[in-house]
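>> received
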Amino acid sequence: MKRREIAMPNYETPRGQSWREFTVFNSVLERARQSPAQGLCIAAPNDDEDTLRALKESMELDLITDPILIGDEDLTLRTLESVTIDPENVEIISCPDPAESARRAAHMVGSGDADLLMKGRVPTAEILRAVLDPANNLRRTGEGGEAGHRLISHLSLFDIEWVPKVMGVTDAGVNIAPDLEAKKDLVRNAAEVFRVLVDQTPKVALLAAVEKVNENMPATLEARAVQEAADEGELGEVTVQGPLSLDCAVDERAASGKGVVGPVAGSADVIVTPDIEAGNIVAKSMMYFARGIMAGILVGTNSPVIVNSRVDVPASRLASILCAVVLSQASQSG
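>> returned
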């Protein structure tokens, strides 16, 4: 039997730097440009061209002023030349060790010498370690977490071409297996960001494989418990429903077809996943299958912390900067 050749579609991958423009992130950009520029400190920029390209564009848009780059000085200078940033327009602090650069950058932001912290060529674990260090004054007090501190979580924010609103996914990068109390903080953190970025009460879906509580599926039990906490006002200004399957969370037709009703069904703004594996898979599916531009930030900190993947395109890094700028401006204005 003759083998039939199948022509595969020619997907344009997210590595392309001009694969599409912002859609819903444009409204966030306009908000960012309406207030004073913010100071940005980058830990280990080194040879990270994509991060420095995003820095260049954010400076040209008057989002960032007086950036501080802490890392390998020679590598950083060469990369600045490659992306055509004048070294006279930045401050470079020589620190060849990435972990130490993360500690110094976190300390500068926590001390008020800069407004935003951004990850460069340094592992996320080192950034998180620096943020958690009490000496750096970046961890917020508040409900949940440990020892009276707010849980630090990762929030992925998406600009998807055919979705007319910002979408959020949490937690795809920090909390491995959040328990019930941690999931309450995931909702608090995400809701706080959405109320600032899009100026509305967000609808949050707690994901599971099914839409009904099942004693043999812990994710459904915790999802319902989080919903009940929100209904009682424990989680602040937010609308929560769970458990919901992914299709019933975001698609009205799916929810209607399965007879799933509720204030979030079919119209979720934020998806809270049961664990980091599910969060990572959902977030990367939005990037690689739905062509989403992702902004990545840590939430639950005194100052915004920008955390992108090593392979994120400059557009994603710029999106992260502009979201962090809006959050920082809101925090400073009270």
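>> The two ends are 72 Å apart (CA to CA).
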